[in-house]
Amino acid sequence: MAVCVTQLVKCSIIVPNLHLEHIIMPTISMFYGVIIRMYYFDNQQHNTPHIHVHYQDDSAVLEIPTGTLLEGKLPKAKLKLVDAWIEIHQEELMADWQLAVSGDSVFKIDPLK
């Protein structure tokens, strides 16, 4: 599947293998097999700042800055890693959240080391 990068309705540039979810839900960090994403304009779903976390076949939505599990599931060990990452990067996550709900591009955040 190809997605237009200039507009989502009219297309002038096609990028092969670029999926719509990567445009509206960019990856902001990856570590130890965990992928962290943040949706654009996603303040309607939970009405609280949050991230989407993916690990293998599991997915979860976690509140920022508390790390509270809002929905889904992750293996306990991976959840602990994500909680530690959220604690370290609270300010950056909240700044990205403000950008995302405004429809602006979010910034990458350093992985857990």
Q: What's the helix and strand layout?
A:
Blueprint lengths: L1 E3 L9 E3 L3 H5 L2 E5 L2 E4 L12 E6 L2 E6 L5 E4 L3 H13 L1 H12 L12
Antiparallel strand pairs: 1-2, 3-4, 4-5, 5-6, 6-7
Structural class: alpha+beta
Low-confidence regions: 1-23
Total strands? 7
**Radius of gyration over alpha carbons?**
14 Å
Overall geometry? globular
List the keywords.
two-stranded antiparallel sheet; 113 residues; 7 strands; alpha+beta; 27% strand; five-stranded antiparallel sheet
Descriptive overview:
Mean pLDDT is 80; it is low at 1-23. This protein has helices at 20-24, 76-88, 90-101, and strands at 2-4, 14-16, 27-31, 34-37, 50-55, 58-63, 69-72. It contains three helices and seven strands; from the N terminus they run E-E-H-E-E-E-E-E-H-H. By secondary structure, the chain is α+β, with helices and mostly antiparallel strands.
In short:
Helices cover 27% and strands 27% of the residues. With 113 residues, the protein is an alpha+beta fold.
